[in-house]
Amino acid sequence: MTNEPVFPIDFVIPWVDGADTNWQEKKIKYQGDLTTEGNSNQRFEDFGTLKYLFRSIEKYANWVNKIWLITDQQIPEWLADNPQVQVVDHKDYIPAKYLPTFNSNVIELNVWRIADLSEHFVLLNDDFLFVSDTKRSDFFSEKGQPKDIAAQSVFMPRDDFAHIPVNNISLINQQFSKRQWLKKNWRMAFNYRNGVALNMLSIILSPLPYITRFFEPHVGTAYLKSNFVKVWELFPEKLELTSQNKFREINEVSHWLVRYYQIMTGQIKARSHNFGKYLGISDVAVLEKALNNRKYKMIVLNDNTTSKNIELVQKSMHVLEKTFEDKGHYEK
């Protein structure tokens, strides 16, 4: 039986209310005529999922030590004054030379600077939800190793965002030997928890001289704060360049670089590929099934809205309200 970690584990949640007029004015001021995927209005839409994330934490992950809510001079109107929740403004931890920023990569890559953030923390998005009981050991081993999956994968680019994970892997391949990693960590690379399909793909990709990609499960990512510091020390120029970008651009890296570093240095313990499920926020039937069958521990509600399916999004929000109907101690 797995022993539970006894050290504190924090959650970190970046959030923005894209409908806030003061914030919109600031965004317009700095974006100028720049029109990219990284500064589109859809990138900053808020459907109200954050409230249900907090309710799901209380219901299924109430072992959390502290919740750090990262904002840009915004506080959710429903959020109660709770000592377990620390609202952190960008200016409280991001160096002034990078501010203001509207770039999620800058916000996430600098989280290690948050004062009093625990060494062990889980990085979440505001569209993630816990959907069945979780334990500390779902994210960290008793010895403090992050739980993750080391299955290999490939890129299938279809938008500008694909450049960023390629940049992550390029740096990893410059710093680490795939052959040495496989030799030392083959039990993780081909672990039964990866599932048959991912293990088969990993076997096919293994003869290639460089890492092509790692499978990205889109669930809460377990991190050691100290690994962010080490990655900043390894790749200072790229992280500095990224942090200077006000909006997300194709020449930068993301927090996945730290995740890859944890994998390549053999720090992780295996976690099931079925830990979470990636859904579209308008996929009402799939959402209801995921909430009811308790197959997964977490889900993510990706923004796949269009003018044609906005009614489906509203139905999904109604499903969330019905599922997480009880106000918790995080709310007024």
Instruction: Quickly give the structural class.
Output: alpha/beta
Strand percent estimate: 5-15%
Low-confidence parts: none
Determine the mean pLDDT: 93
> Within the CATH hierarchy, at the fold level, what is the topology of the domain at 9-138 and 218-257 and 270-323?
Spore Coat Polysaccharide Biosynthesis Protein SpsA, Chain A
Cα-based radius of gyration, to the nearest Å:
19 Å
Q: What general form does the structure show?
A: globular
Helix content: 25-40%
Q: How many strand elements?
A: 10
SSE ordering: EHHEEHHEEEHHHEHHHEEHEH
Q: Report how far apart the termini are.
A: 39 Å
Question: Please, how many helices?
Answer: 12
Main β-sheet, in a few words? 5 strands, mixed
Quaternary form = single chain
Main β-sheet, spatial strand arrangement:
3-2-1-4-7
Verbal overview:
It is a single chain. With 332 residues, the protein is of the alpha/beta class. It contains twelve helices and ten strands. The strands form three sheets. Strands 3-2-1-4-7 form a five-stranded mixed β-sheet. α5 packs parallel to α10 and α11 runs parallel beside α12. The termini are far apart.
